[in-house]
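Just wondering, can you check both lines?
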Amino acid sequence: MPTSRRTLLKTSAAAAAAFSFDWTRAQAQAETVRIGSVYDMTGPFAAGGSVASSVGTDIAIELCNERGGIGGKYKVATVKVDSQSKADVAINEVERLINQEKLDIILGVFSSAHAVPLAAKVEQHKKILWITTAVSTAVFKDKNLQYVFRAQIHSDQYGQAFAGFLAEHTKAKLGVEPKDVKVALIHEDGPYGVGVAAADEAFAKQAGLQIVLKEGYSAAAPDLSVLVTKLKRARADVISHAGYNPDITLFLRQARESGLKFKMLFGAGAGYSQLDKLRATFGADIDNFCNIDPVPAQLLDPAKLAPGVGDLTKIMVARFKEKTNATEVPPHCSMGFNQTWILLNNVLPVAKEKYGGFDPEAIRKAALDVDIPPGGTIQGYGVKFYPPGTPMAGQNERSTPVVMQNAGEHISVVWPTNIRTQDPVFPLPKGSVYGA
């Protein structure tokens, strides 16, 4: 039966409409860069800093889109996943983002225990993994990664800062030589804790410090009283602790109950950077504890940074407080914001304009072009990635941590001395619950 003219016109109109819809949708997709955002929103890592990092990432993406998107042209859409503080969930979710969501860029990752396997997995797929928070040196060391990048510091730098602070201050503050200072190194037994403790040990030995205990434990341990007993027997002057959140809370509670005394405790980021949560549990007990981490951006003098960087910090701080009702903005917010902003502002526009797109090869080349001098980011450090063929390929060679101290309800920078905001209180005052 011949097709009527009316039927033909209807069919043609429908086809034209469908083509127009598909073309419009394709154009919209072409103008949007889709990025996977992977953080632990539940489980023990959530309160250890992962949620704060994710909020920092969200703020950076919101601000980028408000300013017109990448290069002022391309909006960013995130596909968010909760890795639930479980490495197998993180791996499965990233596989899904790559294979089902067809994403070329994966951003985030709080835990080093997740970062190590994810780096290998994403590298295998030749997609981009842009690490914002996880610090383990083992993620990059001798791996010659091509598609994984981290502007964040690495765990060896915690040891450098720990030993550097003690070598500089023990004689003036404690009245003894470094060789007479007894140091205990305790840590959760994942890649993060192991990496920090190894760096602490190596640099402490270089500084001539006396290591009296080095002990790992599971972050999920229900009881740390044996560890506390070992610390009491070792009579450590200074404790370095690399832990997350529930384990830090458990350790400090059992240490207080057993009467453990020391001259100073140094945290290594993670749970020790969540000052609001620690203070809600321990109040003034944690006053004057030190913590090593990248600096919270709001503690830096904006006059010493590149033009406009201080304004970014103001926006980040205001929005974090608005979103979370927090009174203190933890370093992890700055990490999430800073690393995300570097990707959106310094890498992706170059990938498009210079290398022709947002594909992994273009992004990889653009990342290796990044050359931000010190003072060019909200956390103060510069960015230049070690190139392929070097021992730390993909790691930022210009990242730096600081030693901070809990000064009442706020944080002060006490090392390096040239940028400190107050002279360190060392040892803990006699009135401290833990003070020796």
The longest helix spans residues 5-30. Confidence is low (pLDDT under 50) at residues 23-29. The chain has twelve helices and twelve strands. The radius of gyration is 24 Å.
